[in-house]
Amino acid sequence: MILENKVAVVTGAGSGIGRATAIRLAKEGAAVAILDINEAHAVETAEMIQKEGGRALPVMTDITKREDVFAAAEKTVQAFGPLDIWVNCAGYSKIIPFLEHTDELWNRTMDINLKGCFLGCQAAVTHMNEKGGAIVNFSSESGKKGTTWYAAYCASKFAVLGLTQSVAAEFASKGIRCNAVCPGVVLTPMWDQQVADYAKKRNLKPEEVMPRFRNNIPLHRLCELKEVTDLVVFLLSDNSSYMTGQSINLTGGNTMY
Questions:
Q1: Alpha-carbon radius of gyration of the chain
Q2: CB–CB of 25/55 below 8 Å?
């Protein structure tokens, strides 16, 4: 129970990595606010936690809207007490040739991946400013190296690293740490929706996509959700008390810088 009695917010917690993170934080003793734009998914995650004896509060939230994010933070504090942890997990991804990127796609990607992270950090710092705390932002392997058909996503995830470093530098003296996680391929609903597009990009059959990834990754396997949540818990706990402004790769050796 390394996070016992901590109060946490996780965005995008209705599915995928966000859901796995919220469930793991609850198992480690934290009370968790489940933020997601899909209310039914948020409620489902909260119920999964509650059935195991954990504390969870589902909050339907559009992370691209300042009023939603700050209202969710207030609801969390009212329900559980002062905020200790904020994890920006919500994300959006589209594999598409650069010249087919539309303004709408660019803006949607930046709004969710970058603005949502920015607003989450602001809400977190506002509540942590007097007592300290820990923030984890989700970037990506694509925040470390650009790739084809992924311009908007790569740009947004590179930007998350700059945001993370800036927040870490500005609020270190307040006892607020801010780090980023950069996963490679993790099997989630978001990836399920992209397999066909990736196959088209590489002239593969959809069923060949994941074996190709496994073959190219030095450890020859995909990242598991537990490995992601292990890293998140480490970065949120006192075990990483001297770490801030860092971006940690979780890529099986596929990215090493």
A1: 17
A2: no
The strand pairing partners of 64, in sequence order, are none
Give backbone dihedrals phi and psi of 127, rounded to 5 degrees, phi first. Answer: -85, -20
HSE-up (13 A, CA, CB side) for residue 121: 25
Question: Which CATH fold topology does 7-184+224-250 show?
Answer: Rossmann fold (3.40.50)
Give the integer Cα–Cα distance in Å for 167 and 82. 20
Catalytic residue among 153, 198, 242, 257: 153
Question: pLDDT of 136-145, one tens digit each?
Answer: 999 999 999 9
Measured from the Cβ of residue 101, the count of other Cβ atoms closer than 10 Å reads 17
Whole-number Å distance between alpha carbons of 111 and 67: 14
pLDDT (tens digit, 9 = 90+) per residue, 29-66? Answer: 999 999 999 999 999 999 999 999 999 999 999 999 99
Round to the nearest angstrom and report the end-to-end CA distance of the chain.
32
For helices 151-171 and 103-110, angle between their N-to-C axes, nearest 10 degrees: 30
What's the half-sphere exposure (Cβ side, CA atoms, 13 Å) at 4?
2
Cα–Cα nearest to 69, from 134, 132, 117: 117
Active site (annotated) includes residue 153: yes
Angle 84-128-181 from CA coordinates, rounded to 5°: 60
Rounded-to-integer distance, Cα 127 and Cα 20, Å = 24
pTM of the model: 0.96
